[in-house]
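Anyone else keep sequences and structure tokens together like this?

Example one:
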Amino acid sequence: MVKVTVSGVTKEYETGITYGEVSKDFKDNCKYDIILAKQGAKLIELNKKIKTDCEIEFLDISDPNGHKTYVRGVNLLLLDAFYEVCKDMPLKNVFIKYMIGDSCYCEAEGIEITDEILKKVEEKMHELVKKDIPFEKRVVSTQEASDIFEKHKMYDKKKLFEYRRVSTANIYSLDGFEDYYYGYMPSGSGLLKYFTIEKYDNGFMVNMPNQKTPTEVKNHVPSPKLFKTLQEAGNWGKVVNVRTVGALNEIVANGGASNLILVQEALQEKKIAQIAEKIAGDASKKFVMIAGPSSSGKTSFSHRLSIQLRANGLVPHPIAVDNYFVEREDNPKDEQGNYDYECLEAVDRELFNRQLQELLDGKEVVIPTFNFVTGHKEYGKETKKLGENDVLVIEGIHCLNPKLTEHLPDENKFKIYISALTQLNIDEHNRIPTTDGRLIRRIVRDARTRGTSAKDTIARWPSVRRGEEQNICPFQEEADVMFNSALVYELACLKVYAEPLLFGIDKSEPEYQEAKRLLKFLDYFVPVPSEGVPFNSLLREFIGGSCFNV
């Protein structure tokens, strides 16, 4: 017998009972269907058996880890249904490409996507949910996994396993369909009740609930500019012939990293030059507004853009919105009573708009510098005045929010959204979340420039993400152009810096589970040395050695 304690209640069970069976006795502990278990800092799938006394916590889809598990489960459900519906069609593969909001964009190779096909796939998925079929998990050798996916013609997966250092892999199957997933999976199809499918562009969207409303599914709200940028990222991947981690590893292993770096950097420089030419082509544009989430490379981008603007005959002047913070005593506070530096009300908008209008009118102004120690703006003697060819390059999280510059003429603004939208997938069915790439960037940079541990960076990340969701993401479609700062090779390079920092997190810490997940993720990559990274690369903002003051 084993003693299991949940929320202070202890019950006895036969040794070998599964966490899922125990969860039935504690289903009222969670508001929604239980999808994972947690023991200390360790996450556990519900199909696993309990062999010793333990204290556990159950998680539903409203938990971040539970939500990720739900999404992976829906992806397996989708693929099983899709291949079944299209078994007599010339379907070659289904690609799970990227998340946009709560929707996952997918494409199918070999067939034309029709509403009829998608209707049949969705019906099949609901049929599998009603049957509540267990997700079977088996551990096989890496070589056996490679052979399995060659048999299934999943060649991206096969290539991935050729470069793995671990000796085993977890294979999941549903109703006979086998696949591999990066992360924990649900216990069965019965938990995956909420989803819809709709045709979109050349593929389709799988709409899923979010953490806040786990039983509600909304139709996809189009973000055409973001979608176009993600497609462009995919096209960049095609240019360098790198679509998946396995393909990247193959190039690195064959000595092609240097050429890959140069081509990728050239693609970014070309894009920056095009943006600069667009700005220079319109003499009315005096305010270049740059916004983007944390660790997107805004500072390096603004420097490189400024160089290209100079090459087009303009004279750029950098301005940071952070210098326009309200006085510390006037700064709003959040629900915990801490100063909220990320809300729009933390910016002295009246002063910001007035000074920019004065500059537009040809007047001289003294731009403040915010002293973060005293919490007050300071004014020097240096004045700023806009000449005929002068432009202000303004960086801040609210730069795309119309309310920040509501008193300035729209025709004088040029808005840029920058984010690290990775064009790389782990394999055809496992995407790399853009947030993972940015988190790893931030871990490396914070350790180098601020002496911050990986543990502390991970602990603060949910708060950072909440701020982004509130203040940046809702306004991304306001941008005139979007710039993708992700580099196809960067994670293979960041791996060298991030792994020692992540290994430094103790198993007893709450952040250990996230560190473990990121370490497993980085293990997929063959490392790329940083020596070949150009000194003006956006990546240098994080790993060091930049020619810019970042």
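And example two:
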Amino acid sequence: MKHDLIIRNANIVDGTGSTPYIGDIAIENDSIVALGKVDAEGIEEIDADGNAATPGFIDMHTHLDAQIGWDPALTSVTWHGVTTALLGNCGVTFAPCRPEDREFLAGMMETVEDIPKQAILSGLPWDWDSYGGYLDSVERLAPMVNVAGLVGHCAIRFYVMGERSVEEPATPHEIRQIAELAGQSVKEGALGFSTSRAHAHKLPDGRLVPGTFAEAEELHAIAEAVGKAGGIMQTVMNFPEAEKEMALIGEGAALCRAAIFSEVCNPSADARQRRDEIVRQFRAEGKNITAFTVPRSAGGVGGLTTPHFWHSPSWDKLREMDLETRLKALRDNEFRNQLVEELKNHEHADYVRKQTRNWYPMGTTERAYYTGSPDESLYAIAEAAGEHPAETWIRLGLESEGQVRFHMRVFNLNLDDVAEVISTDWAMPGLGDAGAHVSGMIDAGWATFVLSHWHRDQGLYTLEEAVRRMTSVPADILALSDRGTLAVGKKADINVIDIDRVGECQPLLVNDFPHGAPRFIQRAIGYQATICNGQVILRDDEHTGACSGTVLRNGG
């Protein structure tokens, strides 16, 4: 008898944290049927030649809710070993939704997550009302990998309260309706409920999104209904009121199967210590609480191949040009001097200079460079050369024929602080925001960074611990009992990875969204194969075209 697929000679990292071992993996249909020494032949065989075989990674924080409509390959994450993506974070979802609410939900997603409204409206089928109907629609799209979803507070609140949902408190009757709809959405397949209390999340008119100011009574009722249906709670807190917010998260965890929250590695050591104390106390009380944070500095990408640089009359002219024309213009001494002088004389000239302390060249090699120290910032390079940062930016751009890019760090600025947080037993790497902020940022390669930097280059994690944090830990949170580890009977979601070679490639701005809208993509190297439900979806860093994902539903 031949097996459908056999992975030979792999360093099996099973996701449990156990010591890796050399062996084979046999697959029949969508499941693992043998591990260790497999004597039978395979219809297809992959010789891992000592490369690591891991469970497929689970991305716990994506906004691929819209992109899946026109890109079922989910190309933000499937270059990086992800075989399961969780949609619907931060309270912003497209269901439940009445036909007349589509414009509101699409507009909200544009201003919160930088996904073009017109792309959303034209790129999705919009053939649902309920959350279960949305999952049915996603299933018909035949995604490349598994997807699961959280139902968002914003959509539910607007469904129940309409325009009043934005700024007004819910009445007791409305609270009951909101809670019932949240519980019903979980019964229809959502793995839980998400909410945002962050004051950065705004509607097109500048008001904060529905649910931002929801009172404790409303959140309690929701958590109770979601918990009874077997779901989890996801929260983006209002960080300036972290103590109060953590208390609400703890209450949600007491009522639900689990609670997850987005963490930012605060530069204050006292704040980090206090968060550690709070979460450890919650966990000691039996509350299942886990944080997710970006495992590197996160932020925008700018350079001559992008529209992301300074604003002034001459810089705006530069922005309107294509790359070839930009390079020609920058070789003109008069125009180049004008660019620099406008920034030197800018009304916020000091801020313009100092913001470049967080701009770092990403190099011009195949791999993107994310770990520069302060003396490698654009500001430091300019100071050493006796230049204004704009002069340095232009010079580096011309020297590289426009190919150098700059990582403009926004949060998790200090990698030592990041290491401290993700070394705890309650904070996991993640939060890549795949599918969001698409024209300015790209952090979807977080899993690749964990393997290349935190395991291989820094040794913060052993290989088995790095893999555990990206596989069995999120699988347990989501109650995906048939995924997250390599074992007989488990679904065959598997990566084969050359750990010595794995890395993130340079980000690239492309115009492949509906109506030609731009987005950043970032490929990876080192992935010999990615397998989802027994089918090879990626081989030698290239997609095969196979789409073998499914919708993972609560209780199913």
